[in-house]
């Protein structure tokens, strides 16, 4: 799948007069990230896998729109490429967008990451979020509809369909620290959605609790004021979406099995 994505990225770049003769795949997951070396450009290419094993096309489109808005406001995000039209483009069954290459992932300073996330939320406060999905409710419904019925699937369906009440705005949608680069620069807005800011904070809170991750805890504290009760309502909604995606990935990534069982036990014990 990544070979086709690389070919699409190189071809679209060439159509815009840019030549990459040594492209490198940085990541091959829902999307394929291709560094178009020697250019300072990264192509995010839809994997081509059918949904829900792969991303819906509008994920690339929403990501580009939301991140571009935040970048124009000066927020700490990886910016779209300025060497060619960032997109979205379509080629060979793939959807592509082009971003500035900012270097390989390294450890992120959590205080700066938390402060930067608040800056992103502030920058997105005036974004017209009407076209964004509400939380990940619809995505979760599509995922669980394709899973074999079980008590675990029903747990995720019930918890993930809850609707925390709070002031809605455009959000990152999956704001854990793996989606932040040193700088800091937040990226991977592919699951941008609308909802209360606390839904983004739920990603940090989940990592802090289930993985006892100190960096996520520090980033959450650095973010500053938020509604702790609303965050508590958002956490199982976010976690259900994450663990449903684990279930979809199990056939390709069986090593997730023990982790998923442990996380589902934690979710049931704390929120069912």
Q: What features would you describe in this structure?
A:
With 272 residues, the chain is α+β, with helices and mostly antiparallel strands. The chain folds into two domains: 2-100, Phosphorylase Kinase, domain 1 (2-Layer Sandwich); 110-271, Alpha-Beta Complex (Aminoglycoside 3'-phosphotransferase, Chain: A, domain 2), CATH 3.90.1200. It has nine helices and nine strands. The strands form three sheets. It has a five-stranded antiparallel beta sheet, with helices on both faces. A hairpin with a 5-residue loop joins strand 2 (31-35) and strand 3. The mean pLDDT is 93.
Q: What attributes does this structure have?
A:
272 residues; alpha+beta; Phosphorylase Kinase, domain 1; Aminoglycoside 3'-phosphotransferase, Chain: A, domain 2; 2 domains; five-stranded antiparallel sheet; 9 helices; 13% strand; globular
Q: Which sequence of strands runs across the widest sheet?
A: 1-2-3-5-4
Q: State mean pLDDT (0 to 100 scale).
A: 93
CATH second-level architecture of the largest domain? Alpha-Beta Complex
Number of strands: 9
Query: Can you tell me the residue ranges where pLDDT is under 50 for at least 5 consecutive residues?
Result: none
Strand pairing plus helix content: what structural class?
Answer: alpha+beta
How many domains? The number is 2
Name the beta content range: 5-15%
Number of helices: 9
The major β-sheet equals: 5 strands, antiparallel
Order of helices and strands: HEEEHEEHHHEEEEHHHH
- Just give the CATH class of the largest domain: Alpha Beta
The CATH topology of the largest domain is Aminoglycoside 3'-phosphotransferase, Chain: A, domain 2
Q: Compute the CA-based radius of gyration.
A: 18 Å
Name the overall outline: globular
Helix content: 40-55%
CATH superfamily membership of the largest domain: Aminoglycoside phosphotransferase (APH), C-terminal lobe
> What gap, in angstroms, lies between the N and C termini?
38 Å
């Amino acid at each position: 799948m990544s070979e086709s994505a690389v070919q699409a990225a190189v071809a679209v770049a060439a159509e815009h007069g840019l030549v990459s003769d040594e492209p490198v795949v940085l990541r091959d997951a829902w999307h394929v990230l291709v560094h178009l070396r020697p250019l300072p450009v990264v192509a995010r290419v839809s994997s081509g896998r059918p949904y829900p094993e792969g991303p819906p096309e509008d994920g690339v489109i929403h990501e580009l729109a939301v991140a571009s808005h935040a970048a124009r406001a000066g927020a700490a995000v990886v910016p779209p490429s300025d060497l060619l039209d960032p997109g979205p483009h379509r080629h060979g069954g793939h959807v592509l967008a082009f971003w500035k290459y900012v270097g390989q992932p390294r450890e992120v300073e959590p205080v700066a990451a938390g402060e930067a996330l608040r800056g992103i939320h502030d920058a997105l406060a005036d974004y017209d979020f009407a076209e964004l999905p509400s939380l990940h409710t619809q995505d979760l419904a599509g995922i669980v509809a394709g899973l074999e019925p079980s008590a675990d699937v029903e747990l995720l369906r019930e918890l993930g369909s809850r609707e925390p009440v709070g002031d809605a705005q455009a959000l990152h949608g999956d704001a854990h620290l793996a989606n932040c680069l040193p700088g800091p620069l937040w990226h991977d807005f592919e699951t941008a959605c609308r909802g209360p800011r606390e839904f983004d904070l739920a990603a940090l809170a989940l990592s802090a609790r289930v993985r006892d991750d100190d960096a996520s805890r520090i980033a959450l504290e650095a973010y500053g004021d938020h509604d702790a009760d609303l965050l508590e309502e958002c956490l199982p909604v976010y976690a259900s979406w994450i663990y449903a995606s684990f279930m979809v990935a199990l056939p390709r990534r069986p090593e997730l099995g023990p982790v998923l069982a442990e996380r589902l036990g934690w979710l049931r014990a704390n929120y069912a």
